[in-house]
Task: structure prediction
Amino acid sequence: MSDLDSFRSETRAWLEAHCPPEMRAPMKDESDACWGGRNPVFKSDAQKQWMDAMAARGWTVPDWPKDYGGGGLSPAETKILRQEMAAIGARNPLMSFGISMLGPALLKYGNEGQKKRFLTQIARGEIRWCQGYSEPGAGSDLASLQTKCEDKGDHWLVNGQKVWTSYADKADWIFCLVRTDPAAPKHKGISFLLFDMASPGVSTKPILLISGNSPFCETFFDDVAVPKEQLVGEVGKGWDVAKYLLGHEREMISGMGLGGGGGESLGAALGDRLREDPLLRADVARFDVDAIAFRAMSERFIDELKAGQAHPAQPSMMKYAGTELNKARHELAMAAGGSAALEWDSDRSKGGKAPREWLRTKANSIEGGTSEIQLGIIAKHILQLPGA
Amino acid sequence: MPLYLNEDQVMLRDSARGFMAGEGAIGRQLRRLRDAGDVDGFDRGLWKQFAEMGFTGILAAEADGGLGLGHVEAGIVLEEIGRNLTPSPFLTSAVAVVEALRGAGDEVRGRWLPGIIAGDTIAALAVDEGAKHRPHDIAMVAERAGNGYTLTGEKSFVVHGAAADLIVVAARTAEGNALFAVERGADGLSVESARLADGSMAARMRFENVLADGPIGDEQALRRVLRAARVGAASELVGVGGAAAEQTVAYLKERKQFGRAIGEYQALQHRQAHLYCELEIARAATLKAQQMLDEDAEDAAAMSHVAKAKAGRASTLAVQEGVQMYGGVGMTDEYDIGLYMKRDRALNELFGDANYHADRLARMKGY
Result:
């Protein structure tokens, strides 16, 4: 038996022993996700057990080095772990912007002290992070951000406002883009700062969205003092960190194209409702072709990424294709649901799950860089079209 | 198995790429043959060179004198064929018919495989009967007669049918669909060959009590052959669409209007970027289907429907955007982009178009 074969059988046995049965069903909605944090909210004992067991083994971040709380697995082993988890329908044990976004950036740009401190906390789910990127005046043109960060000798002083900060009201810490040099060209004066959301001067205000939910906040900084050692990379070179992290954010968002657990065939899920509507059935069949093909693209992208073969702009392609696909999925589901899918707060509709999710997906092609921004990046960096 | 080419496969791609771009180039093959009104629609000398490169035996077992490789490798060659619009019987002879022969008995394999591998024998696949691919509805009848069968019925869209020494024919028997081997010039076989829009040659065939030996494959074999042919055609489509898109992007950088390269206009940039995504997804889906076929995976049939449908639609988008973005010159015979558009149309019809495959996928998924 090869090493990988024995790794597979050991992994299978370990998952069998440690993954609680309740954690082997697809998440019903966002509230089923486990986010960890300083004051974690667990929906069930099983959820806590599962996160703790995976964290203890380093498998919340299987491919990170063991020194930083990871599992130290090779790309091939990581793929096997994912496959074995998928085979029993195991849920992601820990949803975390620390894992999907900040961690990879720290691994590349953080100093040893920052890696030891923050990566280990992220792996164990001890700190919940939020992302301070967009500002009211800096959306697609992110690099025009104005949040001021002054060097006060023994600390940084931060003043300004962020917007669309996901779960800022629930997060413990923020990774934040700030302007340290207002005189420099816009891409050169930016730095990447980490700080505690409990710091004096930080306040948040949830934004009510068209879905009726408020996953995003406005976040205000009023004379927030930040220790000097919490700046990642070099002063004024935060845009490099920001772009690298955006690549990982886009990768994460592109995962929505996969449609979550059990999303193999939209048509199979909609079933009978397509029978008397041949035109809708045709649309759904074409969608399934696109979705299954995208699933293959995702697999290829992850494999190429792990082998260091992916083009640096490839996440833009995944983000664009994945989010457009997810929007299409919910449009078709709404069409198949008809008037029943309009109910907004009835018990029968589980509090309007279908229409609220449909509306939520409209943000997919806006957040993390709009579809148009992604197409621009592909045109410039992959197709190398002039002036893009 | 990671979903990208391994080192050996990359080497094969590089050698196929060099060969097709040189020997198989559009000016050297497609245009020359078309303009000369060549009755075969491909160059027999080039087909011998395919054999010297080892391409003809890619799918045949080593014991039969082949390379014993898989659908991934066949797809690598087909993508390069697609990129250069190289006319050859590779897809029909070396992929579809070799796949049919792979499951046949020793005698049948011994009779046909050496000639195909040597580049001497041309083989064709006769499945379609009407203008659309409907293999679930085969009307041609095979009736027992003595030790063999007689075949009666009509076939259409038999690619390289007139040039073929061997025609593998799908027909209905009392036990279900089966595959039969019919030789060129058999009694009762009439062939009407025509040049298609893309310059390729295809035949309508009429069978009147044509004698054939026992089946070389059953219904399962027919399905296997169609899966191989479909993912092969998908690879060729990825090549057609990929080259059309690359050439169009190059043109956008060179063509100037209003004092600047038209590729500076966002209206065109975003469409090409979208197309790039579609083609990459099609390439991934096709490779996935080929890996699954080579592993004999359970869902390989579903994935081959996905691959053909996705590759067909992505390639069609590529050639349509290509002709539009080239503008007036895209309408001229002098430029190659129109040749890509015509080949895309033919390949979309070959072994089922995107609608056919989306419909089959939906049925497999229970809706």
